[in-house]
Protein 1
Amino acid sequence: MDISIKPFDELDIHELYSLLQLRSEVFVVEQTCIYNDLDDLDQLAWHLILKKDNRVAGTARILPGGTRFPQVSIGRVVVSPHFRRRNFGKLVMQEAMKFAFSHFTASEIKISAQLYLERFYEDLGFRRITEIYDEDGIPHIGMLAKK
């Protein structure tokens, strides 16, 4: 297993293609959610890529405070259907959180979580801070983790 975290400008074209392909496969096709994944935030983000057997198994993007939210945020967290049920989602989030707290010296991290994943994120230290809201036709909640 290999984990790398890179700013957008350091991604090679194959890494960028693979992470965008995975996000599209899961968020658009699997979840049948038509939305614009390319939201002009990727260029500001650090991208975590988890590879297993030389394939992208998971990814997340980490945004500095003042971009999507006032706080540092983690989003576009996804694990390939081929690599599920191996705790890769937890690993991706733990590594992304570790990076966010150290690299940005953040004291808290905000996420916009799909409602069905509330327990998953609670187990990682996040707490709900909003009511349920609709984001692209999917129920979401705002959550916050403190260092």
Protein 2
Amino acid sequence: MKKIHIILLVLIAGTIAVLISFLQNTTTYDTVQTAIDKPGKFVHLMARWDKTQPMEYDPKKDANYLSFTAIDTLGKSIRVVYHDNKPENFEISERLVLKGKYSAEGDYFDCSSIQTKCPSKYKDDMEAAKKNAQHNAATGAGNTETK
């Protein structure tokens, strides 16, 4: 074999090894049912807080205990127990990324980390901009032609 062929084979093998290592580090969001099917395995749940169910959090009694019900994207709910301070913007978040393990003994999701996904701060600005553009188009106020 020529030296160039050997070098190309080594480069291809190195590229494949790098791609495989990247694939092992990627994470996907699981559903509640997936977490239940894999008790004790670390998963990431994408869910939202079920505001119709009670939330247990009393910072005077225990600031490191939060319990609430979460609903995943398929509509299945699960009780979540989080042993840390309640995230600051928990109440206004649209979605939550819950990292942890399902505990079959207690029938709850033992959460080690909560990442809040808040509504876009630009959503209201976009709606106002659309209304302003419609108003300008109707009244001709946006016309900036020079004569």
Protein 3
Amino acid sequence: MRENFKMIAKTFYGFEDILEKELLTLGAQNVIKGNRYVSFYGDKGFLYKTNFSIRTALKILKPIHTQKIKSEQSLYKLFYEFPWEEYINIDSKFIIDSVVSGKIFTHSQYVSQKAKDGLVDQFRDRYNKRPNVDLNYPDLRINLHIQNDVCTISLDSSGSSLHHRGYRSATNIAPINEVLAAGLIKLSGWDAETDFLDPMCGSGTFLIEAAMYACKIPANINRKSFAFEKWNDYDSNLFNIIRESQLKKIINPTIKIKGSDKAPSAIEKTKQNLKNANLIDFVEVERNDFFQLQKETEKPLHVLTNPPYGKRLEGEINAIYQSIGDSLKQSFPNTNAWLISSNMEALKHIGLRPSRKIKVFNGKLDSRLLFFPIYKGTKRVHKLNKN
């Protein structure tokens, strides 16, 4: 029986609820929501399973020590005296990522430097040799979190952010983050039982994340590596068992997932990324102007798209958003339409009242995910209220 331990799944603002549900579905125990993170318990196999399958987390951390510190000297002492030989040796490469808040420690880079000094001095004093820092390919990625005087040391089991799915080789000018895309799909309430359309698909991130969700394909199946594969206690046989058990859950969905874009380059990029993800047979993509599209059937349709925000289209952005609203009203009856945008002024020109407004961030952009239910038949059109 493997021992359970605490883990932390980091995520975006506003994604805590959907991440909690996803972790519970995977089998997490003692799940507790925080601010941009969810803590939970599981064993080593569950750590592997979470990294491999999770859609809405950016990283999975394993806390290994927490204590109060009052000064940079006590931080140095903590790292100097900590039993690092359980995790690395003198030939290992490592990196320390720090997040600090409060009045005692205010500079994350300085904190990382001080912690690094303590760690390497321990090895130097014992063996006259030290492990080295490697920013790109470390054997161990250490996460240091200090809030006021509480210091938590964690091991980063993921490595690079889990939004690096491994399928995207081609991007448009402003590609949407893969974890953000997966989270927006879940926030929109899509259950993979109705057809899905992204009429301005860019490089196809919404389409790929929707297809992986509908097929029950593990989110990180295309990643080349995880940080835990370099840990001293890595169990390759266990990881293979976990991987195979998740792959057996993949299904062939009966719904259609389609994308379009008026730019030929966007269609080429989308198709390339679909090939990389081995999903070219599950998603239909064609060059088409959204404003010329017509809904193909009377069946319910789920639309999710990321229209331009206007920084490169200042003079015409309001007209574009008005056309989006007109197209939805005229050509997409019986449709649940969702879009994300940070252009609050342009959103007023859609000419539809949103049933829901969800605050999210696209990178550093304060954005809104808006829901426009388009009913079959006539319905009085409301103007969009101001935020």
